[in-house]
Design goal:
The complex is a heterodimer of chains A (268) and B (249). Chain A is of the alpha/beta class and 268 residues long. Chain A is 37% helix and 23% strand. In chain A, the strands form two sheets. A six-stranded mixed sheet of chain A has the order 6-7-8-3-9-10, sandwiched between helices. A four-stranded antiparallel sheet of chain A has the order 2-1-4-5, with helices on one face. Classes of the chains: A alpha/beta (268), B mainly alpha (249). The interface between A and B is medium-sized, with 27 and 22 residues. Bound molecules: adenosine-5'-diphosphate (ADP) and magnesium ion.
Chain lengths: 268, 249
């Protein structure tokens, strides 16, 4: 078993700002992502999931501890081989779909023919062929998130980090996007870490699910699902599917209530 | 098709103005408002005259300099204030205050500072245009979606690439709206500046014509300036709309 990314005793504390005390958002926490696995992170809102993604991707440095990607330390810069899909819509409204998708490759100064080949593949893979010349404002939220996934996909990342990418989508679209994400994971053989607040989504998609505590977020348990690699949303029909979701919920129930309490205190 | 659509607005405006002008002329008579056709003929004649050219050049030069200050200065101020939260918060009410002030009340001060002539006109024109450009730019910079530069960093862009390929295109539509409004107001300010205490330029000709009660010349100059303003504004508006095409999210 190869380890792709490793966090050792990582914590992140946001420094105090005008009128706000310092926020201990994350950790101390240690984790490993195994090569080729689909790992999901669930946890109550505000527990530090996005902060974990920031630190792991190199978008933000940890306050303490170390982050490694493929054996090399990560600090404040996103390493080559890591791709990020954000919770918010990050498609660039001034570019048509195909230019959005080719954006990262163009900045690397890659050969135009190779850019076109890779962009065509990613556009086709994400089912965006009919929208190549469309602007994001002409697309639905689900389509825009596909653009963002395609934009990450062309960079051929070996580790893909997704922060609640389907949070704003309706339930049916979520299921379809989940299946597409599984297909992407299988065909690219990349390692995927998905942050989500939907327990059955985490269950359905993942090999392992890290369950986080209320802030400051730590892993209270890591649940192994044992699902076959070749799976899709029909997995939910299996009799043993519900047991995993129940387990996740029983782990999270008290933490979610604690997080609600934190919210009430913060609101005063 | 698109050419027709862009031209439709200005054309409609021109026709409406001409009809209104003719009607008003018939109601008011030659002493107050000369008829459209003879006036346009007069304008054509004036443009052909050699002594007319320096006046147009004077106004044109004053306007171009004022516009350069409004646009470059306004964008510069806007970027600084938008990028630095505290100075932006301090400066915004001051800028809005100056913006809503009738600036003609400041003209004596400008004249004292710059003297009679070109620089006073330029300063007065720039004073009108620079603030809206700065305000629009400041808001554009402040409102950049923070996820865009984050996405840039996740794709390993250098700071210069982020500025050029993300921050500029993300702010451009709103900045351009500021430039467009700044254009109109700079023109207004420059013309106002020429009306008082100047010895050359279209504004000076206008004032002389008013003294002589030369209605035809007054109107001819008004038409010339309006034509320029309408033409320039419709081009800027067309670009503005094109830039905002993607922004309706
Ligand atoms: N830039 C920041 N400055 C201060 N506090 C922050 C900042 N970003 C997030 N936080 C706080 O850190 C905690 C964790 O945030 P986040 O990682 O976004 O949680 P999640 O993604 O799990 O909802 C929250 O309480 C949030 O308010
Ligand atoms: Mg989050």
């Amino acid at each position: 078993m190869t380890v792709v990314a490793r966090l050792t005793d990582v914590s992140r504390i946001y420094p105090p700002r005008a009128g706000h005390a310092a926020v201990h958002a994350l950790g101390p926490l240690s984790m490993e992502l195994r090569a080729g696995e689909f790992f999901s992170v669930v946890g109550p809102s505000g527990c530090g999931k996005s902060t974990l993604l920031d630190v792991l991707s190199g978008l933000a440095p940890p306050s303490q501890g170390t982050v490694e990607f493929e054996g090399k330390p990560v600090a404040g810069v996103v390493p080559e081989g890591v791709g990020v899909v954000f919770q918010e819509d990050a498609s660039f409204p001034w570019l048509p779909v195909e230019d959005n998708v080719a954006f990262g490759l163009r900045r690397q100064g890659m050969d135009a023919a190779e850019i076109k080949r890779r962009a065509d593949f990613a556009i086709g893979f994400m089912g965006l062929n009919d929208f190549r010349r469309a602007y994001p404002s002409q697309l639905s939220g689900g389509m825009r998130q596909r653009v963002c996934i395609a934009r990450t996909l062309v960079l051929q990342p070996r580790l893909i980090l997704l922060d609640e990418p389907f949070g704003a989508l309706d339930q049916q679209t979520r299921l379809l996007m989940g299946d597409e994400l599984l297909r992407l994971w299988r065909e690219t053989s990349a390692t995927v870490m998905l942050i989500t607040h939907a327990l059955d989504e985490a269950n359905l998609l993942s090999d392992r699910i890290g369950v986080m505590s209320a802030r400051p977020g730590r892993f209270i348990d890591v649940v192994e699902t044992g699902w076959p690699r070749d799976r899709d949303s029909r997995l939910a029909e299996r009799p043993d599917f519900g047991a995993v979701t129940s387990k996740l919920w029983s782990l999270l129930r008290t933490e979610s209530m604690r997080a609600l309490g934190q919210g009430a205190v913060a609101a005063q | 098709m698109t050419a027709v659509r862009t031209l439709r607005g200005p054309l409609l405006l021109t026709v409406t103005l001409l009809v209104a002008w003719q009607l008003l002329h018939q109601w008011a008579g030659d002493t107050a408002l000369t008829a459209p056709l003879p006036t346009l003929g007069h304008l054509w004649e004036m443009i052909g005259q050699k002594r007319f050219v320096p006046h147009v050049t004077e106004t044109g030069l004053a306007f171009l300099q004022a516009l350069a200050i409004s646009w470059i200065g306004g964008v510069g101020i806007g970027v600084l204030l938008g990028g630095h939260k505290l100075s932006g918060e301090v400066a915004e009410p001051i800028l809005v205050g100056i913006y809503s002030l009738p600036k003609i009340t400041l003209y004596p001060v400008i004249l004292l500072l710059f003297g009679l002539g070109m620089s006073a006109k330029v300063a007065f024109g720039a004073l009108h245009g620079i603030i809206p450009v700065a305000l629009f730019t400041m808001n554009a910079v402040r409102n950049v979606n923070r996820t865009y530069p984050r996405a840039g960093r996740s794709m390993r862009l250098s700071p210069a690439q982020t500025a050029w390929h993300i921050l500029i295109p993300a702010t451009l539509p709103e900045v351009f709206t500021g430039l467009r409004i700044g254009f109109s107001l700079t023109l207004l300010g420059t013309m106002l500046g020429e009306l008082f205490a100047s010895q050359r330029g279209l504004g000076f000709l206008l004032m002389t014509a008013i003294d002589l009660n030369d209605v035809q010349t007054i109107l001819a100059i008004a038409v010339l300036i309006s034509l320029f303003a309408v033409a320039a504004n419709s081009i800027l508006l067309a670009i503005d709309k094109r830039l905002h095409r993607g922004a309706a999210a």
